[in-house]
Amino acid sequence: MPIKPKLGQNFLQDEQAIQRIAASIGDCTGRTVVEIGPGKGAITGALSARARRVLAIELDTELAARIRDEFSSDRVTVMNQDVLDFDFTALSAELGDRLLVVGNLPYLITSPILLKLAANSAAIDRAVLMVQREVADRVAASPGSRDYGLLSVTVQMYGPVEKLFTIPPGAFSPPPKVHSTVFRWRFEPRFAELNVDPLLFLGFVRKAFAQKRKTLANNLRAAGIEPQTIDAALSMAGIDPLARTESLAIETLATLWRSLQKEGATPIAEVAPPVTDSDH
User: Fold this and answer.
1) Which distant-in-sequence residues (6+ apart) come within 8 Å of 187 by Cβ?
2) For the whole prediction, is pTM greater than 0.85?
């Protein structure tokens, strides 16, 4: 079967890594696991031995047919479709349970898939995902680190992230040019806790991170907020006027957003546009 580079096909063949990924989702006895991008079914087999049912979402028609032939339909259901079109919420409602998700995410659409999962956070319990190492570093980054940015805040607002282990290129066929990292994401959205609207707050965060070399105040000025409004909100939130956005914890950013709202700066926030893999 020919490899299709445009689909980001690099098939994991290291048995130890396969079993570690399957184990990382935790106890899935009696549960349905949604697998994103099963490929040739290596992780599918390990999951089907642990879960009541695996629902595998595979875009490649030939691979989808291969998995149907290989596994019993009682244990593995194959959906030949784009994961970005899959209705996680409907499946969760049908099962009456939150979903477990496992996936080897294609490098080219990693961020859209992460945003898709975030948008369905109420339907998902936890996910174990394999991504390019640099993306995992950004997703799990802490304030003040080089990798902390828009993607970090966006993902972590939907729940805590834990990097688990890194897999070298040689574990795949064909070997990719990058290392991959597996991380676990528990879906526990923080918007209500921090008293912020999801779309408005993430729109604000995008503006706050617009230019990493600029101070937060300069980014907010570039977003059209009056300097006196910025000064008042920064003071109210206890933030240094010269602070850069990447130095601020999520809780501090939420405090600043609420302060800006009190100062009447709400109109500058817009619905957050998609995060791309170039966003930091």
Assistant:
1) 98, 117, 121, 122, 124, 125, 126, 127, 158, 159
2) yes
